[in-house]
Each structure stands twice: as C-alpha cells, then as structure tokens.
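seq/struct pair 1
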Amino acid sequence: MGKTAVITGITGQDGSYLAELLLDKGYRVVGVTRRTSTQVNERINHLEGKLELVSADLLDQSSLTTVIRDTRPDEVYNLAAQSFVPASWAQPVLTGEFTALGVTRVLEAIRSVDPGIRMYQASSSEMFGLVREVPQRESTPFHPRSPYGVAKVYGHWITVNYRESYDLFAVSGILFNHESERRGLEFVTRKITDGVARIKLGLAAELRLGNLDAQRDWGFAGDYVRAMWLMLQQPAPQDYVIATGRTHAVRDFVRLAFECVDLRWEPYVVVDPRFVRPAEVDLLIGDPAKAKAQLGWEPETTFEQLVERMVRADLERLSRTVTV
C-alpha cells in the first residue's frame, strides 16, 4: 500500500506540481481546498480522478483536525498561504491569520491526531528581507520587509518550536523564488511573460513594472517540489535552503523574455511607481550547498530555460484568443 499525503494549497502552482510528483511515486494524494462559491482548480484539472479533494480552512482548527483524522496521512505538505507579497500590505491581519497562525493550526492537528505524521512547511526567502549576508543560508538571520515575510518567519519558527517541543518530524523548506507557466498573473515574472506575449500578438502596447533593479534567485517550481519530498524522506528533520545560487535582476528577466519574441524591451517597458513596494527587498540569493550535500538535490532547469518556457506557454495560451 502506498503512502498517503495531504497537501494544503493544492490548487496553487506548487501544489499542482507536488501532486503530480507524488502521484507518479504511487501516493494517495488528498488535496485540501477552501469551500467557496467558485472552485478555481484549473492547475489540477488534468489530475481529476487521480486525487481526492476535501474541504478545510487554515482559519478553522476543527476542519483541519478532521481532515488529518479522517485521512491519516503519512505526510502533510502545508503550502497554503496568502502568498502575494504586495497584497500583504493591504491585508496584513488576514496574511497573519493564514500565513502565520494557519501553520500552528496544521501543527496542532498533527500533534493531536498522530505525532508520527511528517510535515513540510513552506518557508520563504522573503524572510531574509534586508539581508545580513550574501548568499543566504540556513543560519542567516531573518529581517523580513513585508507583512508576508513577517508571517512566514512566524510559520518557520513555530515549526521549529513544535519539532523541538513535541518531537514532531516537522521541517521547513526555505525556498527562493520559483516560477512556472502556472504562476499567478499577479506575480512579476508571470506579469512579464504574459505582457511580452500580449505585445508580440498586438494585444498590448506597453508593460508597466516596478523596481527593475531588484535581484532574485529564480528557479523552476517543478524542480523545487522535488526538494520538498526529499526533505520528508530523511532520517532526521532539518530545514533547508532551496535555491539555484544564481541571482538576476528583474531587468534581466524582462530582457530575456523580450528576446524570446525577437523584440527589444526598452520601447515597451514603463516603470510605474505604483508597483514599487513600500519596503523593497533588493537582493536575494540562496546557498543550496546543504541541500545538495544531504538531499542530493540540484535544480535541473536554468534561468534562461525557465524564462523561455514561460513566454512560450503564454504565447500559446493567448494565440488561441486571437482571431486571424
């Protein structure tokens, strides 16, 4: 009999890639979704019939406990969060409820039902914020620069606290930026590739962006979910930085995306102050040495391949809407 895994946030980018990975490994996959009037399942529609979906909410302790008690998973992957950084300034309290206290509720559900369940918590490079050292590693102090980053720091440390207090196998993956064609359109990378495709197809004339000088360590989401799984297969629970070890400015992403469609970027890109964060995170670059040494994990997709993959996918999607 294969293992059972529960994934919160299964309808998101990472959740969909992780579900594919676990299904390929013979897992029974149970996805947790919020009960809403409209279900947004486009990222997992192709997995219909292969996984189970149940309703629960990170704001509701009893619903989470019920899911854990009814499914009796071997592993829980907590990927659900209010994960759009700019929105965390507009909704800081809600971000804290989901992204911080929601982690505690998942841990409590596991502790009360079966402390032997292994849990993965999705931490974030945004926790480093105003970075204290370059590159950032597992021992680098946190200095978050957004309500989202602050909430992620709480989620990270409460996971450590439950591991040390209750002997849970609970780990955090400190994942640096990871993207794909399944990324939401509100995120800057997808905003860029969607905008480039629209300009190429004559559907738009410009692309408005914020800080082009911000630097990020970008990888492919499909590579990063493999690291999540590997963390829960280890003999002892530890936290890991998952990154490429390479950094690029937003400007580099823009330039490569336009090059994919044989256009220069300068005539089309407008810097709009509305999209500049109140407190910017200028430079994130991770040191994945521990993950490489202990997990045997390395990214397989290059930055250049990632950008091209995303642009091609948006071109194909939008081409279907253009009448000849």
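seq/struct pair 2
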Amino acid sequence: MKDKQASLRLEEMTFPEVLQAMEADLPIILPVGSIEQHGPHLPLGVDAYTVQDVARRVGALYPAVVAPPLFYGGFSRPRTGGGRQFPGSTGLPDRTLELVTKNILEDWFRQGFRTAVALNGHYENYAPLLSGIELATEPHLETHKALLLNWWAPLTHEETVALFGDAVEDPDTEHASIVETSVMEAIAPQLVRSQFKTDGRAQRKVSYEIFPPPADIIWKHGIGSTAVGSSPEAGEKYLQLAAERIAGILVFEFGAPSSSRGHDG
C-alpha cells in the first residue's frame, strides 16, 4: 500500500478508503485558511499553507483523514490582517463562511464520520467557524463531536518567545512577522521573498475599531511587527510542537488511537 499518511489525505483517497476510515471511527480534519496579504515577502496563501501543514503533521501523530484546506476565509481586518485595501486580499462574509462550514460538516456526518476538527489558520475565521460547527452538530449532540481550534493556540507566548526571541512583541502583531515568516521558511522556502523581509508596525496601536480605518493604524508594509531575524529551524520546531499539542488534544477529547482505528486495518 502507498504511504499511509498520504492515503489519509481526503483528495487522494478512493471512496472505499474513505468508507474504511469512517468504519474505523477516524476523525476528519478541515484546515481553514485565507487569501490575505502577508507583507511584501510572503504569499497570500500563508494561512492555508500553514494550517494544511499542521493538519498533516497532526494526522501523522493521530490517525485522521485530512481534508484539503479552505483557501478563502473571512475578510481581512485592519488590526489583525492589515485590511482589504491590500491587492489580492480576498475574503468571504461571515455568514457565507458559516454556511460553507455547516454544509461541509453536515455532509461528512451524513456519510458516516462522527468526529471532526476545524483547524483554523486565520484569526477572522473563528466566529463564523464556531457558528457553522454549532449548527452542524446540533442534530447529533448524543452521537457526534467536533472541535474548533486555532492551530497556534496550544503554545504559550512564553514558549514562542523562547523559540524566536524578543522580536516577538505581542501575539496580536505577529501577522507576517518573525513567527509566520519562520514557519513559511520551514514549509515552503521557495515562496519566501527573503530580500523583502523588513520591519512593519503601525504608527498608532489602538484596542478598538475605527470606521473607516485611518492610515496611522494600518501596518506599514502589511507586517505587524518585524520579519527580520526569522529562522526556518525555529519555524520547524514551532510547527511540530503545535502538532504534538493538537494531537494531545485529540487524544483527550476523542480517546487514544488504537490499532483498530488505523486506516490499514
């Protein structure tokens, strides 16, 4: 049989293999990203590339079917993603993402999956994903279970600083900064325009929203703090630690995997 982990990628599986996975009571993971600016040095698909990579790492640690990522997510917001004025940043209204999530999970539950994980890679997705999952699971409260988590959430700020140093100023400004740059250098270094790594930051940091957003709260270059000093080695460690923590959550919530749950049977 071909590589076991590759066989658990939904888009590469045959329908009998999916049926076998459902009969083994494997969870299915939905990675959700975005098409959003990530500075002049990173591609628009950072969130989807990253969350897909983490999902596949989790699937290597805890038997699970990994679905293709949703590349389109919620609209980029000025204080969390730079905003929609950056060319290429394309999003969905919350209600649309909520319904997409609901419909996907409902279809998986209809087919026979009983456990699912929405693994989020884009801050603005969280609320609509939450609503969509609530709607999909409501008819199955006695028989089904679903989880929603941001892939980076299991790591503390202190652990992040230990890996990347004091350049990690604030979790809220890590967009396109040293952590995401390091992660992309570990995942797909060919997509990182290293010559354009620079400092960012807004002239003024506020804790509230302003409509329309004034120029001084918009991140310069679309970077929340700084991309300078990134490290693919630190990015690799961060990704793997996140995957290990998420696999531990699956063990706690779904139960420890056993040989009877493996796809090879």
